[in-house]
C-alpha cells in the first residue's frame, strides 16, 4: 500500500507544468477559440515530445505502455492539461487511441501518429439522446462516432469534413456534428463502453486541474485586492468559500487516482462527478471573489471559468455518473 | 502508487473479522451516553482488551498489537462492518493517549495506559469553558502551585461522557498576564471523584445526560499528573487537537459501513423513479469512498515520515458535513418512520448534528484551512 504518486510521477507533473507555463497557453486558447489551430498544433507536438500521447499507446504501436495505456501517468498529465486550459480534443484523442488499439488495421494506421502528436482525433457519442457533437472536428484528423450497442458495428470513422460550428459555452470548445457515412468498424464487445469510461476518466482529471487553477488564481487575487482597508482574503466569508473549494478538490483527487488504479466504471463515475462538481464550484467561487473583473473576457481567468461547466457535463453528466455508481 | 494490502495485512483482517464475528453482541447495547449503557460498554471494552483488540495500534507492552496505521484502518473497517458497539473509551484512546505517547514520562505511560486500554478507567476531555470554546486560549480556569502539586479552580463545560467517566484531562492557566493568551497554560490530568470536583450533567439535544459541566474548587493534582512542561500546555494540547480532527475520531470504516447500510435501505425501500433521492444515496457512497482514499493517501504520507498537520482540518470539515448529509438522506428514505426517535438512523442523525460543532467548530477549521493551507492573511474572526 502506497497510495501516493512516486517521485517519477511527480517530476513528470512538474516538467509538464513548467513546459505549459512557458508555452503561454492563454494565448494558445484564444487563438484556438478564434479558429486558428496553428499554435494549438504546435503545443500538441510539445505534449507529444513530453510523452503524453505515447502513454495511451502500446509499445507495439510506438507508444510506451507495455500492454496498454498507463492510467496513473495519464491522470497526472491530464490534471496538468486542465491546470493550463490546454485546448483541443485531448481527451477524445487518448480515448480513441485506447479504443483503436482493439481494431488492428486502424491501430496500425492511427496509433503511431497519435503517439507522435501528428494526429488529433475527435469522438462523438451517438448513444446520447440529443445530438452527438464532435469536439474540435475542424481541427481533427479523424472523427470516431460511437454507435449504440444494438448496432452490428461498434463505431464509425466519419468521412473528412464537418457540419457548421455550434458555439459552446466555452469558445475554445468548438462543437460540430460529424458527417454521415464513412467506414464502420467492429471492435471487441465492451470496447465502446470502455472508451466512454476512459473519456470520463480523463475529463475528470482535466476538471480537477481546471479547479486547481481557478482556486490558485483566486487565492492570489484575494491576497492583493483590498477593500475596507484590508486584503479581502482576510475576511472570513472569503476564506470560508476558498476553504470549501480546497476541500472539494482535495477529496476529488483520491477518487481520481483510485479510479486510475482500478479503471472500474463505478470508480470512474465517482471520480467524474466529484471532480466535475468540485471544479464547477471552484469556478463559481472564483467569479464571485473576483467580482466584476472576473466577469470580463479580457481577464485570462475567463478561459478556465467557461471550461468548468462543460467539463462537468462532458462524457458523463453528474446524474448519469451517480446512477452508474449505484449500479456498480 | 497502489492500494494493495500485503499478505500479512490480509491475515490481520481475517483474524479481526473472525474475532468480531464471534464476539460482537447480537443485540445492540444500550446507548453509551446513558448510565446503563455506559456500564455495558465498559464490559465490552474489557472483552475487546482481553484479546488485545481494544488498542491495536499501541505497543504490545500497553495492551496493543503494535499495528501500523494501515492495519489500524483495516481493523476499523472490520469493526464497523461487523456492527460492533461504539467506543466508550474513545476520548482516552484517541485524544489523551497520543498526547501521552508524545509528551508523557515513562512512569505516566505505565501508570495510565493499561487501565485505559482495558476500559477500567474511562477518560473525559475537559477543555471548553463557558467563555472559551472556539477561542480556547482565552480559558480562565487556573492551576495554582501548592506543595507537591497544583490546585485547580474554575469551570469546564461540554465535557463529553464526564457524567459517568472516571478521570479527565485538560489545560489550565498557570501564569496570569502572559504576552499571548496561549502562553502560561499547563496540561494535566485529574480525578472526577476528587475532593472539590462537582459534576453536573447537561441534557443534550437527544435527551441523553452524557455531557457535563465541571466545577472545580481547589482540586489537588500531584506533579506526577502534569503532562509535559508546566506552562507549555498549549503545545501539548495542540498535538491532541490534530488527532481529534484527524484520522482517529472518525475513521473511514464508520462511514463505509453507514453508506453500505444506506444503500441497502435504498434498495429495499426507495421509489426507483425518485432520481433526486437516488443521487443523494450515490453521493453518500461516493463520499465514503473519497474519505477512505483520502485517508489512505494521508496514511501513506505518515508511513513515509510526514506528521499530522493542518490537513486534519480538511478531514474534519469533510466528515462532519458528510455525516449529516448521509443521515438526512436516510431519514428521507424512511419517510414517515423518520420521526421515530429511537431508530438507529434517527439517533445517528441527532448525533451527526453535533459534528460541525465539536472537536473545533467548522468555522475554526475553515479558518485553519484558509490560513495554513492556502496562505491567506489572518484577519478578524
Mean pLDDT of chain A: 96
Strand/helix succession of chain B: HHHHHEEEEEEEEHHHHHH
Structural classification of chain B: alpha+beta
> Biggest sheet of chain B: strands side by side, in what order?
1-4-5-8
User: Low-confidence runs of chain B (pLDDT<50, min 5 residues)?
Assistant: none
- Helix content range of the residues of chain A, please? 55-70%
* Morphology of chain A: globular
How much is the average pLDDT of chain B? 93
Give the N-terminus to C-terminus distance of chain A in angstroms: 24 Å
What helical percentage do the residues of chain B reach? 40-55%
Tally of contiguous helical segments of chain B: 11
Q: Count all strands of chain B and give the number.
A: 8
Strand content of chain B: 5-15%
Largest interface: A-B, 47 and 51 residues
Give a short synopsis of this structure.
The complex is a heterodimer of chains A (328) and B (381). Chain A is of the alpha+beta class and 328 residues long.
What does this structure look like?
The complex is a heterodimer of chains A (328) and B (381). Chain A contains eleven helices and nine strands. Chain A is of the alpha+beta class and 328 residues long. In chain A, the strands form three sheets. A four-stranded mixed β-sheet of chain A has the order 1-3-4-7. A three-stranded antiparallel β-sheet of chain A has the order 2-6-5, with no helix packed on it. In chain A, strand 5 and strand 6 (174-176) form a beta hairpin. In chain A, helix 5 (90-100) runs antiparallel to helix 7 (191-224) and helix 9 (265-290) packs antiparallel against helix 10. The two termini of chain A are 24 Å apart. The relative contact order of chain A is 0.11. The mean pLDDT of chain A is 96. With 381 residues, chain B is α+β, with helices and mostly antiparallel strands. Chain B is 47% helix and 14% strand. Chain B has eleven helices and eight strands. In chain B, strands 1-4-5-8 form a four-stranded mixed β-sheet. Chain B has a four-stranded antiparallel β-sheet with strand order 2-3-7-6, with no helix packed on it. In chain B, a hairpin with an 8-residue loop joins strand 6 (197-202) and strand 7 (211-222). In chain B, helix 3 runs parallel beside helix 7 (252-269) and helix 4 packs antiparallel against helix 5. The two termini of chain B are 40 Å apart. The model of chain B has no long low-confidence stretch (mean pLDDT 93). The chains are: A alpha+beta (328), B alpha+beta (381). The interface between A and B is large, with 47 and 51 residues.
Amino acid at each position: 500500500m502506497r497510495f501516493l504518486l512516486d517521485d517519477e510521477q511527480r517530476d513528470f507533473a512538474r516538467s509538464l507544468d513548467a513546459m505549459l507555463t512557458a508555452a503561454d497557453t492563454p494565448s494558445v486558447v484564444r487563438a484556438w477559440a478564434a479558429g486558428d489551430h496553428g499554435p494549438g498544433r504546435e503545443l500538441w507536438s510539445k505534449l507529444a515530445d513530453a510523452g503524453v500521447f505515447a502513454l495511451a499507446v502500446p509499445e507495439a504501436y510506438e507508444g510506451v505502455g507495455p500492454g496498454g495505456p498507463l492510467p496513473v501517468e495519464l491522470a497526472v498529465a491530464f490534471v496538468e492539461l486542465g491546470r493550463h486550459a490546454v485546448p483541443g480534443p485531448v481527451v477524445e484523442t487518448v480515448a480513441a487511441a485506447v479504443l483503436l488499439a482493439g481494431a488492428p488495421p486502424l491501430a496500425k494506421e492511427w496509433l503511431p501518429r497519435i503517439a507522435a502528436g501528428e494526429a488529433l482525433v475527435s469522438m462523438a457519442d451517438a448513444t446520447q439522446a440529443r445530438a452527438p457533437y464532435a469536439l474540435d472536428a475542424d481541427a481533427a484528423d479523424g472523427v470516431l462516432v460511437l454507435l449504440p450497442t444494438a448496432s452490428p458495428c461498434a463505431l464509425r470513422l466519419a468521412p473528412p469534413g464537418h457540419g457548421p460550428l455550434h458555439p459552446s459555452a466555452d469558445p475554445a470548445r468548438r462543437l460540430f456534428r460529424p458527417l454521415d457515412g464513412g467506414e464502420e468498424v467492429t471492435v471487441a464487445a465492451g470496447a465502446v463502453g470502455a472508451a466512454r469510461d476512459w473519456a470520463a476518466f480523463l475529463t475528470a482529471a482535466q476538471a480537477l486541474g481546471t479547479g486547481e487553477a481557478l482556486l490558485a488564481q483566486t487565492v492570489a487575487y484575494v491576497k492583493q485586492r483590498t477593500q475596507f482597508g484590508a486584503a479581502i482574503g482576510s475576511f472570513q466569508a472569503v476564506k470560508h468559500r476558498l476553504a470549501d473549494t480546497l476541500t472539494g478538490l482535495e477529496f476529488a483527487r483520491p477518487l481520481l487516482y483510485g479510479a486510475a488504479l482500478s479503471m472500474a466504471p463505478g470508480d470512474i463515475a465517482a471520480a467524474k462527478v466529484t471532480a466535475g462538481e468540485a471544479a464547477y464550484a471552484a469556478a463559481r467561487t472564483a467569479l464571485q471573489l473576483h467580482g466584476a473583473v472576473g466577469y470580463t473576457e479580457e481577464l485570462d481567468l475567463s478561459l478556465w471559468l467557461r471550461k468548468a461547466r462543460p467539463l462537468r457535463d462532458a462524457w458523463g453528466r453528474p446524474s448519469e455518473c451517480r446512477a452508474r455508481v449505484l449500479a456498480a | 502508487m497502489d492500494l494493495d494490502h500485503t499478505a500479512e495485512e490480509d491475515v490481520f483482517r481475517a483474524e479481526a473479522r473472525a474475532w468480531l464475528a464471534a464476539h460482537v453482541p447480537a443485540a445492540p447495547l444500550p446507548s453509551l451516553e446513558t448510565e446503563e449503557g455506559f456500564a455495558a460498554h465498559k464490559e465490552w471494552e474489557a472483552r475487546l482488551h482481553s484479546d488485545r483488540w481494544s488498542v491495536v495500534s499501541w505497543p504490545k507492552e500497553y495492551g496493543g498489537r503494535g499495528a501500523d496505521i494501515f492495519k489500524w484502518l483495516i481493523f476499523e473497517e472490520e469493526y464497523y462492518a461487523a456492527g460492533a458497539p461504539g467506543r466508550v473509551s474513545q476520548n482516552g484512546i484517541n485524544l489523551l493517549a497520543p498526547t501521552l505517547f508524545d509528551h508523557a514520562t515513562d512512569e505516566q505511560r505505565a501508570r495510565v495506559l493499561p487501565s485505559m486500554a482495558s476500559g477500567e478507567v474511562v477518560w473525559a476531555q475537559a477543555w471548553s469553558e463557558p467563555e472559551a470554546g472556539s477561542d480556547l486560549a482565552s480559558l480562565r480556569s487556573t492551576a495554582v502551585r501548592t506543595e507537591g502539586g497544583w490546585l485547580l479552580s474554575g469551570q469546564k463545560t461540554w465535557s463529553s461522557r464526564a457524567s459517568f467517566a472516571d478521570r479527565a484531562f485538560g489545560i489550565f492557566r498557570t501564569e496570569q498576564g502572559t504576552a499571548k493568551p496561549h502562553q502560561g497554560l499547563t496540561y494535566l490530568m485529574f480525578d472526577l471523584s476528587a475532593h472539590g470536583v462537582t459534576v453536573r450533567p447537561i441534557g443534550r439535544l437527544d435527551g441523553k445526560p452524557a455531557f457535563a459541566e465541571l466545577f472545580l474548587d481547589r482540586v489537588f493534582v500531584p506533579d506526577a499528573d502534569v503532562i509535559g512542561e508546566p506552562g507549555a500546555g498549549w503545545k501539548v494540547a495542540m498535538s491532541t487537537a490534530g488527532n481529534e480532527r484527524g484520522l482517529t475520531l472518525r475513521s473511514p470504516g464508520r462511514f463505509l459501513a453507514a453508506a453500505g447500510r444506506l444503500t441497502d435501505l435504498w434498495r429495499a425501500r426507495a421509489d426507483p423513479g425518485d432520481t433526486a433521492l437516488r443521487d443523494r444515496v450515490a453521493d453518500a457512497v461516493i463520499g465514503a469512498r473519497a474519505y477512505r482514499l483520502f485517508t489512505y493517501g494521508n496514511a501513506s504520507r505518515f508511513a513515509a515520515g510526514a506528521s499530522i498537520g493542518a490537513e486534519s482540518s480538511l478531514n474534519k470539515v469533510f466528515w462532519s458535513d458528510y455525516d449529516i448529509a448521509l443521515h438526512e438522506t436516510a431519514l428521507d428514505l424512511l419517510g414517515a418512520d423518520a420521526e421515530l426517535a429511537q431508530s438507529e438512523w434517527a439517533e445517528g442523525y441527532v448525533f451527526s448534528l453535533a459534528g460541525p460543532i465539536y472537536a473545533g467548530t467548522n468555522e475554526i477549521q475553515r479558518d485553519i484551512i484558509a490560513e495554513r493551507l492556502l496562505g491567506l492573511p489572518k484577519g478578524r474572526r
